[in-house]
Amino acid sequence: MRKTLSPGRTLSSFHPSETGRYFLVVKAISGEGYANLTFLPNLVAPTLNESALWPTTGDQSTQFNYSILYTDMDNSMPITINLSINGTHYPMQKVDVNDFNYTDGCLYNLSIYLKPSIYNYSYNY
């Protein structure tokens, strides 16, 4: 995988999606700069718990609210939490944007209107 940034952009974090060996190459074009690299291994797999859906029935004018609790004992933030409804992925929003303690869980939510139908849903990160 190769990630290239345009001039003036900063990479604040990089989360590999696959196990493997990664190399970081820094090339100075002009001026001065610095690089601070930190490697934090994820020793414990994150969990998704306490899912909720309310209301459970309605029509096209009903706003359905999905929520899930993301917990990571290594205190690693997720890149994204997604709700998948019938195969379509919707990014969820963190309820408390100032909560950076993932060891006790962070709640994510998505509110959406759906047409009457039968839906299958799941969460992923």
Task: Give a written overview of the molecule.
The structure is a single chain. The chain is mostly beta strands and 125 residues long. The protein has a domain at 47-124: Immunoglobulin-like. 0% of the residues lie in helices and 31% in strands. The chain is built from no helices and seven strands. The chain has strands at 47-54, 63-71, 82-85, 88-91, 93-94, 106-113, 121-124. It has a four-stranded antiparallel β-sheet with strand order 1-2-6-5, with no helix packed on it. A three-stranded antiparallel β-sheet has the order 4-3-7, with no helix packed on it. A hairpin with an 8-residue loop joins strand 1 (47-54) and strand 2 (63-71). The protein starts with 46 loop residues before the first strand and ends with a strand.
- Strand residue percentage: 25-35%
Largest sheet: 4 strands, antiparallel
Q: What would you call the quaternary organization?
A: single chain
Order of helices and strands: EEEEEEE
Mean pLDDT: 84
Give the SSE map.
Blueprint: E1 47-54, E2 63-71, E3 82-85, E4 88-91, E5 93-94, E6 106-113, E7 121-124
Antiparallel strand pairs: 1-2, 2-6, 3-4, 3-7, 5-6
Short description:
With 125 residues, the chain is mostly beta strands. It has a domain at 47-124: Immunoglobulin-like (Sandwich).
